[in-house]
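Weekend entry, working from home. Most of the wet-lab plans are on hold until the incubator is repaired, so I used the time to fold the two sequences that have been sitting in the queue since the last round of cloning. Logging both here for the record. First:
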Amino acid sequence: MLRTAEITAELTGLENTSHQLYWRSRLEFTLDCFICERTGRTTVFERGAEQAQCSGSRSGFQSHRTAGRIAGFDTTTGRDRLAVRALVDFWWAPFSDTRDDRKAAAPTSHPWVRLHLAYYCPEAKESGTGSIQTNLVRPYHLRCKHCDGPLGVDRETPAVRLLDGQR
């Protein structure tokens, strides 16, 4: 069954930075994978890719392709905020985990997401990257790896919402 998840996040405090900050079109999302029949797998999505990459597991299953893609990716930039909304399509089918017999869910029972950012440091004249994820202590202050200047503040956990199949 095709499912769609909406993932949203926002950074604030951008008025304190001189860096050019933007969302990268890559994200990681925890899903229950019907291919390797494991729950809670980190799945990597890249905008434009027709398939996602499941991390597999540490006990014998290798990383593999899976049915998933970024169906929509919108960003909003304001004077003091930077927001993102991603729609992630993924295929899901019921199964029991091959290792601990846990029932699969869509999305997984504890969804986790990591969103990637990139920026340009005018002081160092170099690019850098960063990320935010659901399991960070908030507020989380992002800083430049080159000059240690402020980039923005992640005040709220990225939201994950399963849509009913109609967009």
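Second, folded right after the first finished:
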Amino acid sequence: MKSGTSKSDSEAYELASRTADAQRARLPDRQRSQISDADMETGEAWFVWGFYSAMTDDIERRKRLMTTYLDTKYAYENSEQRVDEIARMGEARNGLFDAIVAAGRQAYREGGDGHLTSIATIFLNVIRNY
């Protein structure tokens, strides 16, 4: 589905939130204990950005959806600034960001539930190698 999607903003939030929560719940305990909550929140935000990217081509709607997601799920004080940073990362070349966003897109398109586990593995590999 692209910018002509029939999903309302609240339906889009619910779908993204359910998907991220289900995938986070599937993480093995050893992965969960090795990745900080802040890193997982970052990975989840990038994942959801990819999820919304597959849902709509409209960058302003994507930013609005992402801001709502962060405000609702994590009550960030400056969600708009964080969303702007995520959008800028999408314009730059960053292999980690691109891989996680691609997993979010794939999760939306396939409705799969194993993509966040892949993200955790990516994070652990990066953490171990740096």
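Plan for Monday: verify the second prediction. The chain has one domain: 9-129.
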